[in-house]
Amino acid sequence: MKKDVTSKEPTKSIKSSNSSVKRNKRIVMTHGDDYNLETGVPVKISSIPDIANEAEFRVAMQEINEIMSKGEGNLTRAETKRLSVLSLSVRNFDRATYSIERPKTLGSALDLQKYQRGWKQRQLAQALGVSEAKLSLIISGRQKPDIILLKAMHEKLGIDGNFILEVI
Asked: Residue 103 in 3-state DSSP?
């Protein structure tokens, strides 16, 4: 089942790599990897405008900040839809431009989780239910993790189970 949603706002645009994408861009909702933030309905990837460079990224971020400054409860449906599309565009640009290499070991995956969350090693150890000393040994590769820790890494940190199985 497909659901079409069209935004009918004035024509302020961000430029894509091949053309300008107007605010009234039609968003076709189908099953895909991204979701409309307002409805939770999947968004077809091709409906998300591309951001080609840092200048366009800054323009999109400025527009996001302007919309967000109004406060969540004060947004119109059109502004909410626009925010959703801009957010996905910015996220896609960010992922493509500033991607982090996939970790190759459990230790590097744990280090990445620690960095992404802004945690100290003590906080990571508490979240996983292990001592700092044990976590240090596992991160450095001097000790193999037990099944309880592997399960905690998956459940509490969201580390992909397939990745865990690949690297142990």
From this structure: coil
- The per-residue DSSP string of 6-54 comes to E------EEE-SSSEEETT-EEEE-SSSEE-TTT--EE-GGGSPP--SH
**Domain limits of the chain?**
3-97, 106-167
Superfamily of domain 106-167, CATH level 4 = lambda repressor-like DNA-binding domains (1.10.260.40)
Q: What is the pLDDT of residues 58-110, one digit of tens each?
A: 999 999 999 999 998 899 999 999 998 999 899 888 888 887 788 999 999 99
32 closest CA partner among 43, 17, 41, 40: 43
